[in-house]
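Hi all, a correction to my earlier message: I attached the wrong file for 16S rRNA (cytosine(967)-C(5))-methyltransferase. Here's the right sequence:
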Amino acid sequence: MPTQPRKTARSSRHIAAETLHRRQQRREPVTILLNELAAQHALAPNDRQLAMNMTYGVLRQQDYLETLLQKFCRQPLSKLKPFVRYTLLIGLYQIMFLDRIPDSAAVNEAVKAVQAAKLPKQLQGLVNGILRNAARQQGQLPQPDAADSHGQPFLNHPPWLTQRWSQHFGQHTMEDICRANNQQQPLVLQVNSSRCSRDQLRDLLQKAGTAVHHGTHSPEALILTDFNGRIENLPGFHEGYFQVQGEAPQLATGLLAPIIPDGRYLDACAGLGGKTSQLLGACLQMNSAQATAATQLQAVEPEARRRGKFLTNLKRLHPDQSITPYPGTLQDFAQHCTETFDGILIDAPCSGTGVTGRHPDIRWNRLETDFKRYQSIQLDILRQAATILNPRGIIVYATCSLEPEENQEVIELFLTEHPDFRLSECAPLLPPAARILTQGPFFAPTPAQGIDGFFAARLLRDPD
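and the right structure:
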C-alpha cells in the first residue's frame, strides 16, 4: 500500500509570512491562501488562528510597520527577499502589538522561520539583528497613531483608495474610516431569536467567562470584544442559538418588512445562508401568527461549496426546516421559475470595501477598475430579480461596499430602466438606534460610525 507523502511541519509565523507573500503574488483572499498552507503543513487549529491573527495584523498596519522596518534596514525594502520582508513585518507586529507574546519569542520564532525556509545564515542574522534592535528601542519608536515623515497619519490603505474616500466622504471621515479599519474587529453574533433571547445567550456566554455586551444598533446583536478562539467552542453554537453576522447585515433583512401572510420570498444571493436564516425566522413567526397558507421562502446559490455550508448552517439554526438552494444563477432560476415573489433580497457580489476592517486583505487586493466590473454584475442581478417580482413587491438591494459605482449608481441606472419602481425610505423600518445610519432613502453606514460599511436600498414596484 503506497504511503502518503509526509507533511512538513511549519510554525504559525512561517505560514503567516508565506501567506502574505502569496497574497502579494496572486491577489487572492488570505483565508484561502492560509487554509491551503495550513492543510499542507498540518497546522493545528490554535496555530492556524495565530497565523491568521498575525497575517491580518500586518495587513491592517502595513504602512506603519514598513516605516518602522525601513528605520532598521539599510537597503530599500523592495530589495529584501519577500519571505524575509514579511517575516520581519510579522516580528515587528508581534513586538509592537501583541503583549501576550514575549519579544524574545517573536525574535526567535522569526529566525526559526527563516531557517526552516532554508535561507542563508546571513539572512537569519539580518532578521535577528533588526528585530532585537526594534525590541530594545520599542519605547522610542513612533506609535501607530503618530504622524509619518510627511506629517500625515498612518492610513494603512492604498493611496488611490483613501483619495476616493476623501472625495466621497471628506478628509476627516476618510481618516476615521481608516482608523476604524486598522483596529482588530470584535466578533458580532446574531441571536437566533426563534431558539433563545438575546439576554439568555448573553448570560450563557458570561457564565462561560466570555466578555460580551449588547450591540449598539441591532436588537439581535451581541458583541464579543476580545474573542480569539474557535466559534464552535462558544456555548450555544451547536444548539443553534446564534450565527456570526455583523450588525449592518442583520439590519438589512428587516428592510423587506412587512412579511405578509401567504407571501413568497426569495434570497437571490444566498451565500452561506446568514440572511436566509433571518428571513426564515421572520416567515416562521408570521406562520405561527396566522392560520392561512404558510409564507414561503426560497434561495438561490450557484456555488457548490457555499451551498454545502448553507445547508449545514441552516440545519444547525433551524433543524426542523428545509430549504435547498437553487444550484444555478439567478438568471437560470428566473428562466425556470413558474411563480413570482412578494419580496426579494439581493445581497449582491461586491468589492467589499466596507468590511476591509474585518478582511484587511481586501484593501490591498482591490483595483479601481473592479468597481465598474461589479456594477455590471449587480445591475444584471437587479434586472433579473425584477422579472420575477409581483406588483407591489419589494426588492432590497444590499452590498458591503462603500463605493458609489456599486451603490447609488446601480440604483439610479436601474430606476432609469424601470419606471415602475420607486425608492422607499429605509429609516422607518430600522430600529430607532440605527436610523442615524441612513443617507437620504438609503441605509448607508460607514466604519467611522462603529459598524461595518454597508449599503441597502428598498425598491417598491408600483401596482399594474
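Sorry for the mix-up. The chain has three domains: 12-140, 187-244, 249-461.
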